[in-house]
């Protein structure tokens, strides 16, 4: 399985707008995506008020590529969130099951 960690930093003043997008659009979209085993959305904390994240567990690389395309190592964002996001980071790992 593949663990995909997606983190974004929101533009100052856009936190409320992005939070609405995150909860109403992004989380339901990811939870309903074929190939996703688990989705762990992360909302900001007081020490990082503009940072949101997703930890996603994918069945396999083929499932991930079916969703984002061959360029799975680039952080893809919905056009609706593009103007709200200052920066984004994506990382991939092989899941280690304990």
From TrEMBL:
Q: Which domain of life is it from?
A: Bacteria
InterPro entries on file: Dimeric_a/b-barrel
- Enumerate the SUPFAM superfamilies for this protein: Dimeric alpha+beta barrel (SSF54909)
Kindly provide the name given to this protein in its UniProt entry.
Answer: Antibiotic biosynthesis monooxygenase
What is the organism of origin for this protein? Roseibium sediminicola
